[in-house]
Design the sequence.
């Protein structure tokens, strides 16, 4: 075992031939910060251990073992007989991880009270990921209130869930949580990233005034839910050098909730999409013990989520195809064709030629020379000439990405996917006769865990936005099963 955790990271990184920047980018930290971590000049946040194990292609338990062994070593290295003590600690860690492996997987868990009705409330509700998670689990729910400032999100929400108009809030600031005190079992929300720009080095609940996070914390304080789930981008952890997340933790401490947090990737919970998000799970009952659900083997590829028949409007025209297939854009990972795992979805990506695309052909094409017979498809859904060149180029300087399409696991779906970014950022797929197209709204919804019974009542543009802004339903299902949400139902 290497003497420090930093040395372990460096050793494993070198074994894989990964440059410092590749690992730092995956962890969403600066290369200088990772360099200091490898030199033991800084400590790695525990919340980054899961993505670290992922990029280092190592079992998470091994990374955890290294991390805690190194931590203990640093604490006791000046004590007499520290080596003997360290051996005992390492034995105990090994026993712990072995015992943890023997616990039943969350997939195998059954709800103790499956007929219970869970009272749920959501803020920044979007298209109702948690509501749909309960639907897939076939658990009864009562929607106490929901809220979103986007009128199109409201349209989708009302088309798919039962809620009275009086229990919907366009503005979260209008929610009077005291009205619902004791009436909410589960509160779910994730304020937009922009809401954290004002938090800075503030230290508690009162100091977050003027931010949307303040309203989430305020509603937690006023409604006193038994459980809350707060979700956000993993960059929240490192925002403002970690000060923002420290303020958030201090706020939840002040509210009296016992909470747990971790970065989870949707590809570890059954959905072929790279989407890392921080989840904070809070319990009003401070005696609650909770462990995050363990990753499961990914059994599906992105191609398994594609529609059998696709309207011509989703295919790219000549200019768009050249943009998507450009080697420079693909290397830059702005676009991806026929990828295994989808890029993380964003709202506008499918309209600016970024993201995942499909190439409908059994043979792997030379993307820089491939396109034929593309003019027969509607102009609206083909890539334009300059767009094709952009999407399938690797980019330049610090913006280079790997050009790959038709991935087995999709890149993160972005709320901006309708704009169509490069193939290294968005997902592109290929189909018959060398035609290349973007993902359809239905396919994007599938990659977010929504089934085909979800009603699309808005335009494609809005549906792409809403899918990219949502939470992956399968991750929420794993969390609900792991904690057994039915235990918190009204008795």
Sequence:
């Amino acid at each position: 075992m290497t003497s420090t955790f930093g040395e372990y990271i460096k050793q494993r990184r070198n074994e894989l031939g990964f440059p410092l920047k590749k690992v730092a980018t995956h962890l969403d930290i600066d290369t200088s910060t990772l360099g200091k971590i490898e030199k033991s000049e800084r400590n790695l946040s525990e919340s980054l251990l899961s993505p670290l194990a992922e990029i280092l292609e190592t079992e998470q338990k091994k990374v955890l073992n290294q991390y805690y062994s190194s931590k203990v070593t640093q604490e006791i290295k000046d004590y007499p007989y520290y080596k003997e003590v360290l051996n005992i600690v390492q034995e105990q860690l090994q026993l712990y991880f072995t015992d943890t492996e023997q616990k039943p997987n969350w997939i195998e868990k059954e709800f103790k009270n499956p007929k219970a009705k869970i009272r749920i409330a959501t803020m920044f509700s979007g298209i109702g990921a948690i509501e749909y998670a309960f639907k897939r689990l076939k658990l009864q729910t009562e929607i106490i209130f929901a809220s979103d400032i986007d009128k199109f999100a409201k349209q989708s929400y009302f088309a798919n869930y039962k809620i009275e108009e009086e229990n919907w809030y366009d503005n979260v600031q209008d929610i009077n949580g005291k009205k619902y005190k004791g009436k909410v079992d589960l509160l779910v929300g994730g304020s937009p990233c922009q809401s954290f720009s004002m938090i800075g080095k503030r230290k508690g609940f009162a100091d977050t005034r003027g931010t949307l996070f303040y309203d989430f914390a305020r509603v937690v304080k006023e409604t006193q839910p038994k459980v809350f789930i707060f979700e956000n981008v993993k960059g929240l952890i490192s925002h403002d050098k970690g000060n923002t997340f420290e303020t958030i933790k201090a706020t939840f401490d002040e509210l009296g909730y016992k909470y747990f947090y971790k970065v989870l990737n949707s590809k570890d919970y059954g959905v072929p999409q790279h989407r890392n998000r921080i989840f904070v799970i809070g319990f009003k009952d401070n005696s609650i013990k909770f462990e995050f659900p363990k990753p499961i083997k990914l059994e599906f590829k992105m191609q398994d989520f594609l529609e059998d028949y696709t309207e011509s409007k989703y295919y790219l025209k000549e200019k768009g195809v050249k943009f998507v297939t450009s080697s420079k854009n693909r290397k830059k990972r702005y676009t991806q064709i026929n990828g295994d795992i989808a890029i993380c979805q964003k709202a506008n990506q499918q309209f600016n030629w970024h993201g995942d695309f499909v190439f409908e052909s059994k043979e792997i094409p030379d993307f820089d020379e491939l396109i034929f017979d593309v003019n027969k498809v509607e102009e609206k859904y083909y890539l334009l000439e300059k767009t094709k060149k952009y999407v399938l180029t690797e980019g330049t300087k610090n913006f280079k990405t790997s050009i790959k399409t038709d991935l087995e696991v999709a890149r993160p779906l972005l709320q901006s996917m309708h704009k169509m970014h490069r193939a290294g950022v968005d997902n592109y797929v290929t189909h018959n006769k060398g035609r290349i197209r973007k993902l359809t709204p239905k396919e994007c919804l599938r990659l977010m865990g929504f089934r085909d019974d979800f009603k699309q009542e808005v335009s494609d543009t809005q549906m792409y936005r809403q899918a990219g802004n949502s939470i992956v339903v399968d991750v929420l299902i794993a969390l609900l099963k792991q904690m057994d949400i039915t235990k918190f139902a009204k008795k």
Notes: The chain has three domains: 5-102, 117-299+479-488, 308-439. DSSP finds 16 helices and 13 strands in the chain. The first helix runs from residue 5 to 16.
